[in-house]
Every structure is written in C-alpha cells, then in structure tokens.
Amino acid sequence: MLELRPNCECCDRDLTPDSKQARICKYECTFCAACAETILCGACPNCAGNLTPRPIRPPAMLAKHPAATRRVLRAQPCEAR
Ligand SMILES: [Zn+2]
Ligand SMILES: [Zn+2]
C-alpha cells in the first residue's frame, strides 16, 4: 500500500490525498510538482529515482486505507541541480 504523505519533503507544502500536484518516487518520497519540476528536475534527491505523478486513491479506498498523517521533511533543504 502506497504511503500517501501529507506534505512535500522540500517545501513542506500540504499535499492532500487527491492532490494532482503530488509527485512520488518508488520509495514513497513525496514532493510537490513545483519542487519536482523546478528544483529537482524530476529526480528524487533521496534515492535518485524518478518522480512521477502520485496516483489518486479513490475515496472508497481512502476510507479503508487512510492517507498517512506523519509529515516527512528533508533534514537538508533541496538544492537546484
Ligand atoms: Zn515542494
Ligand atoms: Zn526517493
């Protein structure tokens, strides 16, 4: 089950489970579209995997498997590469 994190690891912006702005890597590192595109150039700064739009979990599934509430933030700020 994909962990739907509530924020961007770079800028701590809120990302709702149905946000089309959420980007995610294979290891569930989560970023917003703005950081993914302008700062990270589509690559995860933690694991170097590619960032793809996060799938939207349908409301019925969301009720069954709620989104994560634990906020994850990088210790180091993201830098443009
Ligand atoms: Zn961000
Ligand atoms: Zn990653």
Bound molecules: zinc ion
On the 0-100 scale, what is the average pLDDT? 95
Report the total helices.
2
* Net shape: elongated
Contiguous runs where pLDDT drops below 50 for at least 5 residues:
none
**Intertermini distance:** 31 Å
Helix fraction?
Answer: 10-25%
The largest beta-sheet arranges its strands as 2-1-3
Proportion of residues in extended strands = 5-15%
Please give the number of β-strands.
3
Main β-sheet: number of strands, strand sense, barrel status? 3 strands, antiparallel
Topology order in helix (H) and strand (E) letters: EEHEH
How big is the Rg?
12 Å
- The chain-level structural class is alpha+beta
Would you spell out the secondary-structure blueprint of this structure?
Elements: E1 22-24, E2 30-32, H1 33-39, E3 52-53, H2 59-64
The structure holds zinc ion (ZN) (2 copies).
One zinc ion (ZN) binds next to loops.
